[in-house]
Amino acid sequence: MDFELTESMTMLRDSAKEFADKRLKPGALAWDEREAIPAEVYREGAQLGFFGLSVPEAFGGLGVDPLAYAAAMEELARGSAAFQVCVTVHNSLVCAAIVKHGAEEQKKKYLPKLAAGDWVGAYCLSEPNAGTDAGSLATFAADQGDHFLVNGTKAWVTNGGFAQVFVVFVSTNREAGSRGIACLIVEKGMPGFSVGKKEKKMGLRASDTRELVFQNAKIPKGQLLGPVGGGFKIAMSLLDSGRVGIAAQSVGIGRAALEEAVSYAKERKQFGKTLASFQLTQAKIADMATNLDAARLLVYRAASLLAEGKKCTKEASMAKSFASRAANKACFDALQIHGGNGYIREFPVERYFRDARVTEIYEGTTEVQSLIVAREILG
Known about the structure:
This protein folds into 3 domains: 7-119, Butyryl-Coa Dehydrogenase, subunit A, domain 1; 122-231, Butyryl-CoA Dehydrogenase, subunit A, domain 2 (Beta Barrel); 232-378, Butyryl-CoA Dehydrogenase, subunit A, domain 3. The protein is built from 10 helices and 9 strands. The protein has helices at residues 7-34, 39-47, 66-79, 81-101, 104-116, 231-267, 279-307, 313-338, 348-357, 366-378, and strands at residues 121-124, 140-143, 147-158, 165-171, 181-187, 193-198, 209-220, 269-270, 273-274. The strands form 3 sheets. Strands 2-3-7-6 form a 4-stranded antiparallel sheet, covered by helices on one side. Strand 8 and strand 9 form a beta hairpin. Helix 7 (279-307) runs antiparallel to helix 8 (313-338). It is globular and about 80 Å long.
């Protein structure tokens, strides 16, 4: 495979890199402390087109190649993983769901505003008792003729506090299990639908993560995305691209940690020499760089297969599993190189260490990725 970025791909990556360096990195520490990113930062990102990356040009988006998308996600995550997770959920899970499965009327209504960043999307699959086991949803949608009456709670919803469009998975027939799941497009302010408490997290603190509550929420039948009973297939169809986005995020976080470790090792002196002159430090940095390069190649391979319309379940899971583990190891070693300073919040590696941890959990745990890869190989 040829992973050489085209001129247009390089321009997008460089645009993301510039935004990360000039806007995201300088504010990331303050945003982490406040547990929020200012609205104007999202608006600036939208003006650069980051919220329309996966939306076709016909609906106002950029419609970029998955390889270009992965390259941009890595750069944004290098600047602020909390900002990038908003963008990747919006693109790869919400916009992509409507692009792939929406009726023409739904595409015309939602995609232009989502692409412009006027509306932000949130993806609502997990529940307090249904994470990895996505087929056991408790949120229930009762068919009331011209509408569904929805009751239940969704958990760990990225962008939940400020999103306007929610892709929500519900059960319409509990006895049917995964075959009884439907997908609804829910708008902020619909009767009976409310945003719950904001989660206090270890990492990605500036990313808004919420609980969503449905109490006899009346959702019109026209908000159904795809067929009744087809919700689980919709969710599964988005996982590969979602995992590529998180794998790219992992590489970005790991790169940020590596860059800080290199800079610190060149400046910090012990026993009359810089840390960079010690072979054990050199070995850590060499391993970090090698693993992150390998992770990026796995991400690019999966993204290239997505671009070609080929199945890449195994490759996406490999990329997500390896990249997330590489990022966590890179952050661990970068913090170790910093010594006591790495444990202090004013040094970025402390935040990277916390941010990286969730990459082995969301979009499918590392353990689940291993099961998927083994299943794909063994048949």
